[in-house]
User: Which sequence fits this backbone?
């Protein structure tokens, strides 16, 4: 058998490094005839031990005696022995096979009849179950005698042998000169079932030990580890629990949420030997025909993960063809698994990876599986779910009227299936179609609405929720269209608005109002609650945003009719309906109703006997303050006459049960936010400021503050109240500072906490650091308190540095942000903290896993540059080294890289000509980034947004460098880079998708270049497109900031030319 044949045969190569395929030499027939077909095959062989011509393998006569002791016959063909005594077996390269000894077993295996051969295998397997453990142990002792003399056999080898005999005969081990380490790997591979079961044990110690074993196995021999998992998943005789976990671990070895970890896993997979990957794929595909639904489903997901890696690289191109080749002939459970796999693949890869021919084949299989003629509900469900994932691939099909009609008919038929899960999946497809193919929905919208109206009122909740979600998606689409294009649509508009929501309004709104009466008793206590009433209210709010004033006359009669009803459900539904429509209609349209409702709701918040009603009332008040209160509005619902009552009621409600108190905090948050632009004026909140601070702070200390997000809401409200306060209340904020600092110190001093307690402490540390950041910003900007506030800076800095010792990413982020605020407030005085802080700065720059921390740290470096100016140069060598490494790393999330380029500009501006030594590193890096940001044709919105942020970072770097060198004798060092920079500006001018921020930055660089280089750049402007056309366009801009920058740049260019 050739190595290629071995690699593709059923079975598992359990340890890739320890057990290697030994390629045979060219086959020579010494007997002048073909080798008998009845000779041992890979399926019949249980253990291919080794090549007897290798000097480290036990001589065959010893091996035979060992086998005889174990009642197992060894057939050996070597250069110095003949074949089995009763038959000639020609295999010149001499492998050893463990094989059944009894004649009946041998003869049955040799017969050509498939049935008798299969029975022989069964009989042989039964014999091996009783005898192979002894043989394997003894053979192992001889085979590994040389290694055992120095290292000893690993513990549990007998257990490994027991594991081995439990495998079907298709499993094989191939060995060749194993090392002691590889022996351990082989044992781990053979014990994988028990390890996987132990990893799910109730006993924590057993579970931890198993997890450590798995981790060690993975790190020591990844190929063997993945093969063992794939084999476990593929083996029907294995426990369901071990198979499922094996598949889950295998999937997690291919993908991760964190971008850097995902990249590592992808590279690990691509680096595996091709034969190993091929064997894993065989196991996965074979598992799709398993009777176990868990095994099939897990295999489907793993196949999709592999496809997500390989298909974009033009690898495993035969996968889709293999899956679809016989989908109509295979059993129902295999068909179900195949459809599920196709769906997962469509979820993993982008549409441009799969060619249209394969898309058509996938869609054909999926739609046929969804058809009402399909009798197997599991097949129909998997097909429907697969369509959901495949919709992004079907642009061409949805552009074809006949194909689109057929797809829509099949989906609508599925919405009336007798099976709940199929109906739910079908509505999920309709939701996705509404988002993806809104412009194609017009011929079907009436029928869909009729189906939905019946479902929402009569069907089970999971189905009804998706039916409501359809209209929410339609609202989202029409809101986006109206915001982007306005109301002017012509016949040839690319994406016209069909006003589906407005047309359906008379029937849609009453339907949604009825859903509000389907509340659940405990919905306010469950943070993750989602039911028909909540879905209906959310959809009603989106409808209000879509149609504006038109919704008010349709909703207000329901509100007025139910607001004072005895049944709490009616009162709560009326309040919820009113709160839901407060965003969208004009303040003028709502004002008459709000002014009446405000008084009623303040009373209801205190006196209503039902907590559900009070919860929704507090939420509605928050919506009133968010959308109908603020200096930008001509109409204000808060007056000197009702302000006192509003604040009194909100503060009193903060002492209510947690869910009501949390909503009251939210209402106060928006109330304070409405006064943020008061400036130096006296805020209406000033007379109540002390009481507000005290009450909200007391809420953070409540014993039940951990419920209903109350503590988090209280700190968010406290922060907003402080942020929006005026200078006259700064002394009261100053009194809050030591309280927050003492709380933070208590969390850091706490000892011997349980895991849950530690988790809560870390969360609290993040909230406290966030609060301190706001306090620092407020007190640091007030001259009345700045001096006294800085007396606390030593304590604050010490506590912040201690927070970095926690394991909470959120706490690290908040502590770093607070330090950034302290840097800004302390200015040059922050220099004394740099020797100790610098190592935490380095840690932040190297934190690729929690990339938000890295991004915030980059921002703090900018703050340091502005505060310390040239004194930051003492630390710049290390900082620049880390920043350059960050830019070069594929493990760091891409969103951090544009701020790093901006940071180069901050550093250059701070240290001036000292930046000279970094030019040879930064300029090539900037030029490389320019190439990446040059063109965005065909890119999606996210990519365009990222490219513009990258462009802005590059431009800010250039601007900072030019300004930093201005007036320096070393200015001429920048002249060689000027032509390339102008070419980059010219290329940006030719791009049509640059945003206003990039325009402003680009025209600023143009001016900085002229201002810094003077006549050294004069000749360059003569032929520069950006120096002429770009400048002219920006001078004519409606944006005052762009126009101002352009005017300054024009003067700088004129000075350079005239000079």
Assistant:
């Amino acid at each position: 058998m050739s190595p290629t044949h071995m690699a593709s045969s059923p079975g598992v190569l359990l340890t890739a490094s320890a057990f290697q395929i030994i390629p045979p030499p060219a086959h020579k027939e010494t007997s002048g005839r073909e080798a008998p077909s009845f000779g041992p095959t890979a399926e019949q062989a249980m253990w291919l031990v080794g090549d007897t011509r290798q000097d480290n393998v036990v001589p065959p006569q010893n091996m035979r005696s060992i086998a005889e002791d174990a009642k197992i016959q060894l057939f050996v063909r070597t250069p110095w022995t003949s074949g089995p005594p009763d038959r000639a077996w020609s295999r010149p390269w001499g492998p050893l096979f463990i094989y059944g000894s009894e004649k009946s077993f041998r003869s049955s295996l040799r017969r050509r009849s498939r049935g008798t051969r299969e029975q022989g295998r069964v009989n042989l397997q039964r014999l091996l179950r009783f005898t192979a453990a002894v043989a394997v142990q003894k053979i192992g002792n001889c085979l590994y005698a040389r290694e055992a003399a120095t290292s000893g056999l690993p513990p549990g080898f007998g257990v490994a042998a027991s594991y081995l005999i439990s495998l079907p005969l298709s499993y094989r081990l191939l060995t060749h000169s194993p090392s002691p380490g590889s022996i351990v790997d082989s044992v781990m591979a053979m014990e994988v079932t028990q390890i996987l079961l132990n990893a799910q044990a109730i006993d924590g110690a057993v579970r931890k030990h198993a997890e450590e074993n798995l981790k060690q196995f993975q790190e020591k021999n990844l190929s063997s580890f993945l093969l063992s998992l794939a084999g476990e998943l593929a083996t029907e005789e294995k426990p369901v629990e071990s198979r499922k976990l094996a598949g889950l671990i295998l999937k997690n070895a291919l993908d991760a949420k964190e971008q850097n970890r995902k990249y590592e896993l992808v590279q690990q997979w691509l680096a595996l030997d091709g034969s190993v990957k091929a064997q894993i794929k065989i196991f996965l595909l074979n598992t799709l025909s398993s009777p176990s639904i868990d095994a099939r489903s897990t295999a489907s997901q793993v196949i999709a993960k592999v496809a997500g890696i390989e298909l974009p690289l033009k690898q495993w191109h035969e996968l889709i063809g293999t899956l679809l080749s016989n989908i109509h002939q295979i059993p129902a459970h295999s068909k179900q698994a195949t459809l599920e796999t196709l769906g997962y693949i469509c979820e993993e890869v982008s549409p441009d990876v799969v060619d249209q021919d394969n898309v058509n084949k996938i869609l054909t299989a999926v739609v046929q599986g969804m058809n009402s003629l399909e009798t197997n509900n599991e097949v129909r469900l998997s097909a429907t779910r697969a369509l959901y994932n495949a919709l992004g691939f079907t642009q061409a099909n949805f552009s074809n009227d006949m194909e689109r009609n057929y797809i829509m008919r099949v989906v609508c038929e599925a919405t009336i299936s007798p099976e709940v899960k199929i109906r739910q999946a079908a509505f999920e497809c309709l939701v996705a179609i509404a988002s993806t193919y809104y412009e194609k929905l017009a011929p079907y919208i009436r029928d869909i609405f009729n189906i939905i109206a019946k479902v929402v009122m009569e069907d089970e909740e999971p189905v009804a929720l998706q039916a409501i979600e359809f209209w929410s998606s339609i609202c989202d689409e029409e809101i986006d269209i109206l915001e982007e294009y306005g109301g002017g649509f012509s016949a040839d508009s690319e994406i016209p608005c069909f006003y589906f929501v407005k047309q359906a309004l008379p029937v849609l709104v009453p339907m949604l109002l009825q859903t509000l009466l389907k509340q659940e008793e405990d919905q306010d206590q469950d943070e993750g609650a989602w039911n028909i009433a909540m879905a209906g209210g959310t959809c009603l709010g989106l409808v209000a945003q879509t149609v504006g004033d038109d919704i008010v006359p349709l909703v207000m009669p329901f509100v007025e009719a139910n607001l004072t009803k005895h049944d709490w459900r009616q009162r709560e539904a009326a309040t919820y309906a009113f709160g839901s429509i407060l965003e969208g209609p004009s303040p003028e349209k709502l004002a008459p109703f709000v002014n009446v409702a405000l008084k009623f709701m303040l009373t209801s918040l205190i006196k209503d006997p039902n907590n559900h009603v009070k919860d929704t009332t507090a939420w509605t008040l928050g919506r009133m303050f968010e959308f109908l209160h603020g200096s930008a509005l001509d109409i204000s619902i808060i007056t000197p006459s009702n302000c006192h009552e509003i604040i009194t009621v909100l503060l009193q409600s903060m002492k209510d049960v947690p869910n009501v108190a949390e909503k009251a905090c939210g209402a106060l948050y928006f109330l304070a936010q409405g006064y943020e632009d008061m400036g130096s004026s006296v805020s209406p909140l000033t007379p109540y400021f002390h009481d507000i601070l005290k009450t909200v702070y007391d809420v953070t200390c409540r014993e039940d503050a951990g419920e209903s997000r109350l503590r988090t809401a209280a700190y968010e409200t406290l922060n907003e109240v402080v942020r929006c306060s005026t200078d006259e209340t700064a002394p009261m904020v100053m009194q809050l500072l030591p309280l927050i600092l003492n709380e933070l110190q208590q969390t850091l001093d706490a000892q011997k906490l349980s895991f849950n307690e530690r988790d809560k402490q870390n969360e609290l540390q993040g909230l406290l650091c966030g609060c301190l950041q706001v306090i620092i910003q407020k007190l640091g900007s007030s001259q009345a308190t700045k001096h006294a506030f800085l007396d606390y800076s030593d304590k604050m800095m010490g506590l912040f540095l201690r927070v970095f010792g926690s394991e909470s990413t959120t706490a690290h982020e908040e502590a770093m942000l607070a330090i950034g605020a302290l840097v800004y407030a302390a200015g040059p005085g922050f220099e004394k903290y740099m020797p100790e802080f610098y190592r935490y700065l380095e840690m932040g720059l190297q934190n690729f896993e929690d990339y938000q921390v890295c991004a915030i740290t980059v921002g703090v470096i900018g703050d340091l540059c502005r505060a310390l100016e040239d004194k930051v140069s003492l630390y710049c060598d290390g900082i620049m080294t880390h920043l350059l490494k960050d830019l070069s790393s594929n493990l760091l999330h891409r969103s951090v890289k544009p701020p790093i380029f901006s940071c180069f500009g901050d550093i250059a501006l701070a240290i001036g000509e000292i930046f000279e030594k970094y030019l040879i590193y930064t300029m090539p890096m900037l030029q490389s980034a320019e190439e990446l940001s040059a063109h965005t044709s065909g890119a999606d919105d996210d990519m365009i947004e990222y490219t513009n942020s990258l462009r802005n970072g590059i431009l800010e770097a250039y601007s900072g460098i030019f300004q930093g060198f201005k007036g320096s004798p070393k200015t001429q060092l920048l002249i060689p880079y000027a032509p390339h920079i102008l070419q980059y500006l010219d290329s940006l001018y030719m791009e049509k998708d640059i945003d206003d921020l990039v325009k402003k930055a680009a025209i600023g660089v143009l001016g900085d270049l002229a201002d810094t280089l003077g006549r050294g750049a004069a000749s360059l402007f003569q032929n520069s497109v950006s120096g002429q056309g770009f400048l002219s366009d920006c001078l004519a801009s409606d944006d005052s900031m762009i126009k101002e920058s352009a005017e300054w740049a024009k003067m700088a260019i004129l000075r350079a030319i005239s000079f």
Remarks:
- The first strand starts at residue 48 and ends at 51.
